[in-house]
Write a structure and sequence with these properties.
formyl-coa transferase, domain 3; Rossmann fold; 2 domains; three-stranded antiparallel beta sheet; about 15% strand; alpha/beta
Length: about 400
């Protein structure tokens, strides 16, 4: 069966993490994704670059075509207009106002192509007091409130170790684009979708906000624990590392006590209810840790999950690349990159019935598809394309 977005063309004017993450998912759904880069190459190609590309670029740009185009030039803008007329979805995550400075406001875009879906993402959006601020993950984690709940109460707020705001916003951008594409089937007209890193990140704070509304107090940072302070919940030491677990519900707690061989504590008033366990959190943690530290992290997670108690060994990046769950689900897929060699990149995280995930080509070399797009799609002659290159247009 063909992929869900077969026949849909995406013009990918994205850089770094947020936008490329969203457009790679579109490629996995079968869309033709044309990544438009400046003649110097997209930003992420230069991060720890090897031979004109990088591992970050390779992780987020599989299955795409690459063309070079300088939108600062009049000829480059004319070419871009022609591409827009043949495009279903335009995705971009330049800083606010950049694309408009090249003459491509939303009003202009829909004049060029009334059916165009325009999906745009910036740090803080196109309106609001922070609209013109520069944005990177660490600043947005701080400004959104996410950093305030991460870390330990006796230490400064801490950034999450992963750039989590980018895929959050990328998924919102993808969702909006797909909804607009569905609506276009009914109306025949395109839409503009806007997402901000700042807005999307706040969506991760529902549990924290619920605790704030319930108590009327700003919750303290709890490390790996829960905002409510319920116990046990956290990261516990094992003989070879750490394992995260939670048994805050009564059925989980009772199951955990059976595993620990401490069934007599079920009737102990210090542990009989979630609130009682919260009041005696230090003692609860001692009881759990006395068991976990004599076992490996995988023994702990296996035993707890066998009895319905949520737990997960703390894996490092090398561990996850060999994890059997990821292997079974093809979360990572092996590719043979012409410059970087054999490496594992992201597979398709969205599974469709009756439509196995395609194996995408490795991330393209800079301008790899200039000829096929400019000659075959737009109809320029080989001589014209050579002149564009000589003049720095592509």
């Amino acid at each position: 069966m063909e992929q869900a977005l077969t026949g849909i063309r995406v013009l990918d004017l994205t850089l770094a993490y947020l936008g490329p993450y969203a457009t790679q998912l579109l490629a996995y759904m079968g869309a033709e994704v044309i990544h438009v880069e400046s003649p110097r190459g997209e930003l992420s190609r230069g991060i720890d670059a090897r031979g004109g590309t990088s591992h970050l670029f390779a992780l987020l740009n599989n299955g795409k075509k690459s063309i070079t185009l300088d939108l600062r030039t009049r000829e480059g803008q004319d070419i871009f207009r022609q591409l827009l007329g043949r495009t279903d979805i335009l995705v971009q995550n330049y800083a606010y106002g950049i694309l408009e400075s090249f003459g491509f406001s939303w009003e202009t875009l829909r004049e060029i192509n009334p059916r165009l879906i325009y999906a745009t993402a910036t740090g803080y959006g196109s309106y609001g007091p922070y609209r013109d601020w520069s944005s990177v993950d660490i600043a947005v984690q701080a400004k959104s409130g996410l950093m305030s709940v991460n870390g330990y109460p006796d230490r400064p707020p801490c950034r999450l170790g992963a750039a989590i705001t980018d895929p959050f916003a990328g998924l919102h951008l993808l969702t909006g684009a797909l909804a607009a594409l569905y609506q276009r089937e009914r109306t025949g007209r395109g839409r503009r979708i806007e997402v901000s890193l700042h807005d999307a990140t706040v969506g991760s704070l529902a549990v924290n906000l619920a605790a704030y509304y319930a108590s009327g107090r700003v919750p303290e940072r709890q490390g790996s624990g829960q905002t409510s302070g319920l116990a046990p919940m956290g990261v516990f030491e094992t003989s070879d590392g750490y394992c995260a677990l939670t048994a805050v519900q009564d059925n989980w707690w009772n199951g955990l006590l059976e595993i620990l061989g401490r069934a007599e504590l079920k009737s102990d008033p210090r542990f009989a209810t979630p609130s009682a366990r919260r009041e005696n959190k230090e003692l609860v943690d001692q009881i759990v840790n006395s068991w976990t530290h004599t076992r490996t992290k995988h023994e702990v997670e296996q035993e707890l999950n066998k009895h319905g108690v949520p737990a997960g060994a703390v894996l490092d990046l090398e561990d996850i690349l060999g994890d059997p769950q990821y292997a079974e689900r093809e979360t990572f897929v092996e590719t043979e990159h012409p410059v970087l060699g054999r490496l594992k990149t992201f597979g398709n995280f969205i599974k469709f019935s009756d439509s196995p995930s395609p194996r995408l080509n490795p991330a393209p070399a800079l301008g790899e598809d200039n000829d096929s797009v400019y000659i075959d799609l737009l109809g320029y002659s080989a001589e014209a394309v050579a002149k564009f290159k000589a003049n720095g247009v592509i």
